[in-house]
Design brief:
single chain, 376 residues, alpha/beta, TIM Barrel, 2 domains, 30% helix, elongated
């Protein structure tokens, strides 16, 4: 009897293996933050949090909704590096977190909260080091810190930034420009009396490419690599034999129906596929509502009995059809692998992404959070 028709399987063994690899890549005193935003890159936020808690120093989430959820399972230090609305800052402080700040107005709000609550909210300053996203511009940092020093009910304990072009390991000129800017930001902060700040700029790519200088890396944030996925194809080609990251996720469903349709028979909406001969098909109870992208229509593949089976017709909201003419003895409730290994075959998020011109990050983060996440 099937416990779940469709689910996301999680390998604790592979997860711990990947964390161990990154521990070995960073200096001994450098802290490790596990990035579990976006439902832990589709793997299941709290499931991953419980598996990793004893191996890491911090969690990193994006917003207060993720923080609320995280606090149901752990009080581990947590960085909220995305946006928190003004009227939610008080709750964020009460939930206990480190808040990313890049504007003086919100810093003043936190200062008032700190005064009323008689506790100093913990702050990490976000520096826009040639990224062009959130953050304090280098030329505005001196003025910002002059204002910040007047606020006595906050605790600025960290400064950080983010690489924007490190996934292209062949051209590191922009990365070096970012490193220089971040180093200047640290020097400016020190000139205002903010010494020994927690400093972090590197994520998985930075660790793999050894872009972790002790002067600006008291913490490293590992995201995609935690889950056994590569930040880019270039980095994968360069390091996969050396580091052997292991995928944590396995997306599994089961065959709902098997039948043979005749020649000249339409499959699915829009008459996008017409059989040229009698064809044995299997109906799979997953679809774009579950995160299996509609652009995989007529081009995606799944694994059944260790064989690659091509998607026929249009992916619909909760089901699609595959050709199993070449697979003997297929039956209802046979296992179907959308992502992961089956016998000697494997389908990766990168494989899927290459078919629809996107990245592995998008493939996994768009998997429905309603699917059960099960350690297996």
């Amino acid at each position: 009897m099937l416990r779940h028709l469709s689910y996301i399987g999680l390998s604790r063994k592979n997860l711990e293996h990947n964390i161990k690899i990154f521990r070995g890549l960073i200096p001994k005193k450098t802290k490790l933050a596990a990035v579990i935003k976006a439902n832990a890159y589709g793997h299941g936020q709290n499931e991953i949090a419980k598996m990793t808690e004893r191996f890491i120093d911090y969690f990193q989430v994006d917003d207060i909704d993720e923080l609320r959820l995280l606090r149901k399972v752990t009080r581990k230090p947590a960085l909220v590096l995305g946006y928190i609305a003004k009227d939610e800052l008080l709750e964020a402080v009460k939930l206990g977190c480190i808040i990313a700040i890049y504007d003086i107005e919100r810093l003043k709000i936190l200062n008032n909260i700190g005064k009323k609550q008689r506790q100093k909210p913990k702050i990490h300053l976000k520096i826009d080091a040639y990224f062009g996203r959130q953050g304090i511009l280098l030329g505005e940092l001196d003025k910002f810190l002059s204002e910040a020093k007047k606020l006595k009910n906050i605790r600025i304990e960290g400064i950080y930034s983010h690489y924007s072009h490190l996934k292209d390991s062949k051209d590191l000129s922009h990365t070096e420009k970012q490193i220089k800017a971040f180093s200047e930001a640290i020097s400016i902060a020190e000139s205002h009396g903010y010494k020994n700040l927690c400093r972090h700029i590197s994520a998985s790519s930075g660790a793999l490419l050894n872009k972790i200088s002790p002067s600006h890396a008291s913490m490293v944030r590992i995201g995609i690599g935690t889950y056994g996925l590569w930040p880019s194809l270039q980095i994968k080609r360069k390091f996969q034999k050396k580091f052997n990251l292991r995928p944590v996720m396995r997306w599994v469903s089961h065959v709902a129906q098997v039948k043979t349709v005749p020649k000249n028979y339409s499959v699915g909406y829009g008459l996008s596929f017409i059989t040229k001969k009698p064809t044995k098909i299997a109906v799979i109870p997953q679809g774009y509502g579950d995160g299996y992208d509609r652009k995989l229509s007529n081009k995606g593949e799944v694994l059944i009995r260790g064989k690659r089976c091509r998607v026929l017709g249009i992916i619909t909201m909760n089901m699609f059809v595959v050709d199993v003419s070449h697979v003997p003895n297929v039956r209802p409730e046979d296992e179907v692998v959308l992502i992961g290994e089956q016998k000697r075959e494997r389908i990766t998020p990168g494989d899927i992404g290459s078919k629809i011109d996107t990245v592995n990050y998008e493939i996994v983060t768009r998997i429905s959070p309603l699917l059960p996440r099960i350690e297996c």
